[in-house]
Amino acid sequence: MQFSNIRALAAATALSAAVLFPLSANAQQQGQKPAAQPAQAQPAPAATNKGEPLKAPVVAVVDVQRVMQESTASKGIQKTIESQRDTYQKEIQTLEDKLQNAESELRKQQTVLAPDAFAAKRRDFEKQVADVQRTVQARKRTLDTAFNDAMGHVQKTMLDIVQSIADERGANVVIPRNLLVLFASNLDVTDTVLERLNKQLPAVAVTIPKP
Questions:
Q1: What DSSP state is assigned to residue 20?
Q2: For the domain that residue 163 is a member of, what is the CATH number?
Q3: What is the pLDDT of residue 111?
Q4: Which of 29, 77, 135, 140 could form a disulfide with 150 if both were Cys (CB 3.0 to 4.6 A apart)?
Q5: Is 61 helix (H, G, I), strand (E, B) or coil?
Q6: In which residue ranges of the chain is pLDDT below 70?
Q7: CB atoms < 10 A from the CB of 168, how many?
Q8: How many alpha carbons lie under 13 Å from residue 134 in its C-beta half-sphere?
Q9: Residue 122 sits in which domain range?
């Protein structure tokens, strides 16, 4: 009886643990470990007052990615998620160690057990591997949900602040910085958005349900 299938299952479990919380390319370049980017904001519906003449565009620019990465609340969320991820990684490593020990023991029993008895033990081992894989995926979903919920709160507050600043400046068009190549620096309201966001929302509680 060969153990290639068993080793493949165990290897798949290890691979799943490795992607429990993958790093973004930007984080790898900076030596940090932020999590996935928050969902993109939905554009506001266009005005439908047909009798009202079109106004000349008054533009403001916001570096949304910078705000969502550098705000005090976002950094706190990332720190909490990373701490919980480390806890999960230790849990998964313990489970993987047990699988390796079980595989080693099963190897020893291969030559002494009857074929039916060995097949039963092999099926039991494969079930253990599948259970660990499900645990890995469940932990990843938990982290993803907690992160997205918390960052969604940051994003909503940021959009409210952007709306307020646009009203103050009489801007009727706000464009994300990453969509532009050139623009006048006086159109950029990113620093103001970031400053107000840090004052209005210095922290966000991250809810991570217990397994």
A1: S
A2: 3.30.910.20
A3: 83
A4: 77
A5: strand
A6: 1-51
A7: 11
A8: 7
A9: 4-22+56-200
